[in-house]
């Protein structure tokens, strides 16, 4: 059984210093603390700089004695992250997890992985080969993906809100739905239609 009191405490800790760390964790649904959405900023001095990356977090019943299941919801071009599914290859999310670690430390480790790829232990072999053999092409592709998928201009958001409101959805619901799917208009529409 998930220790929900601990999860509540971890959420408060994460969000308390958001202004400094840029890391945030919020429940994905109204009352479900076992399914969360994490947000990390792209590290400075990397092709991911300026991006905001959403990470889908599912807490297994054994949490904190079992690691959280994390995957990128934002598409990212990185040797240790699947460009298809967002799966993350990181030891602390597998066999090196310890109950002393928290959601915040796990997200900080994911952020550190963006700064220091490990192409010899890849999640995405194609990206790893590009990283090793054509580094400048890798940097250009990673930057392009960051700009395309992890950067949202506020003007773009307002246009999306307007479009969805014109379809008959309430503005507050549109804004919260867009936020929960990282600004992806198509995903937001799908979610709004199925609600």
Give a verbal description of the structure.
Strand 1 (24-27) and strand 2 (35-41) form a beta hairpin. It is globular, with a radius of gyration of 17 Å. Strands 1-2-3-4 form a 4-stranded antiparallel β-sheet. The two termini are 28 Å apart. Helix content is 45%, strand content 11%. The protein has 195 residues and is an alpha+beta fold. Residues 156-195 form the UBA domain. Its EC number is 2.3.2.23. Belongs to the ubiquitin-conjugating enzyme family. One of its GO terms (molecular function) is ATP binding.
Summarize the entry for a quick read:
This protein is an alpha+beta fold. The protein contains eight helices and four strands; from the N terminus they run H-H-E-E-E-E-H-H-H-H-H-H. Helix content is 45%, strand content 11%.
Write the layout of secondary structure elements.
Elements: H1 4-16, H2 18-21, E1 24-27, E2 35-41, E3 52-58, E4 69-72, H3 103-115, H4 125-133, H5 135-150, H6 154-166, H7 171-180, H8 185-194
Antiparallel strand pairs: 1-2, 2-3, 3-4
Helix pairs in contact: 4-5, 6-7, 7-8
Query: What profile does the largest beta sheet have?
Result: 4 strands, antiparallel
**Order of SSEs:** HHEEEEHHHHHH
Residue-averaged pLDDT:
90
Helical content class: 40-55%
**Strand line-up across the major sheet:** 1-2-3-4
Low-confidence segments, given as residue ranges, are none
How many helices?
8
Q: Alpha-carbon distance between the termini?
A: 28 Å
Radius of gyration: 17 Å
Strand content bin? 5-15%
Number of strands: 4
Task: Sum up the overall morphology in one term.
Answer: globular
| Structural classification | alpha+beta
